[in-house]
């Protein structure tokens, strides 16, 4: 299995795990009677700052999955994983760092680290897109 396929699956799994964590916490809030079952908003407004950050971290994954996951899928479908494989794990690590830092803090340092992790993803994504486009044009 290529690194690209592993990372695509990992990215989907990471988004799913963030959602699972959010739903476990929400379920506990409902069972304990702290929030009615219909009392949640998509951004977790009215809940703890951690829950609001968790909703945003999950949304960040879901928002970026079509773009970055799409690039990985193009590489996999066109047998061009030689383009995406070398940086696939760096991409996944930076995605996870971005999410974990988002969950941990909103301090200026944390925001800088989070943005830096996102910038790494953007750089990798642009590199992949460029390389995949030129590989398609050369075929």
From TrEMBL:
Entry's transmembrane regions: 57-77, 117-138
GO CC annotations, alphabetized: membrane
Protein name: MAPEG family protein
Cell compartments where the protein resides: Membrane
Domain of life: Bacteria
Keywords for the protein's UniProt record, in alphabetical order: Membrane, Transmembrane, Transmembrane helix
Chief location of this protein within or outside the cell: membrane
InterPro entries with a match to the protein in the record: MAPEG-like_dom_sf, Membr-assoc_MAPEG
Organism: Arenimonas maotaiensis
């Amino acid at each position: 299995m290529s690194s690209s396929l592993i990372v695509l699956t990992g990215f989907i799994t990471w988004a799913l795990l963030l959602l699972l964590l959010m739903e476990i916490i929400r379920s506990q809030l409902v069972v304990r009677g702290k929030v009615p079952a219909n009392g949640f908003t998509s951004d977790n407004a009215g809940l703890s700052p951690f829950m609001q950050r968790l909703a945003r971290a999950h949304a960040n994954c879901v928002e970026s999955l079509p773009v970055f996951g799409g690039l990985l899928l193009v590489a996999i479908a066109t047998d061009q994983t030689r383009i995406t494989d070398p940086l696939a794990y760096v991409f996944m690590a930076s995605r996870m760092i971005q999410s974990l830092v988002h969950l941990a803090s909103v301090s200026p340092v944390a925001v800088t680290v989070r943005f830096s992790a996102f910038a790494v993803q953007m750089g990798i994504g642009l590199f992949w897109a460029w390389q995949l486009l030129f590989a398609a044009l050369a075929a």
